[in-house]
TrEMBL record:
Protein name in UniProt: Competence protein
KW Transmembrane helix (keyword) present: yes
Record keywords: Membrane, Transmembrane, Transmembrane helix
TM spans (from-to): 46-69, 75-96
Amino acid sequence: MAFEEIKENAEDLKQEVKNLIDANLRYYKLWGFKIVMKSTTMMLKLFLLAVMLTIVTVFFSIALALGIGYWLDNFAYGFLIVGLIYLILAILVYYVQDKIVEGPMLSRFSKIFLKKY
């Protein structure tokens, strides 16, 4: 009689462990889906924002170049000056890129991936 009870308890324990493993597996699949979706939507938002800012920058650059060209009575000089401004900005960004990009990106993704649930 005692052996039958132990056998039944062992089978119940086996079933409960299987249910626990299945529940954990479903949880981690859902958690992974959540992380992937947050990352994807954040990247899509950043991409759309970058596209819009690029369009705005192009139009402002053309307007600035034309304005400087009217002021100097030479459109080529206006576009050259705007080009030099962008070249100087590119050199500055190159030298401080780690501080601008790495810190904020690491911080944002750390909040998403390392959040305790």
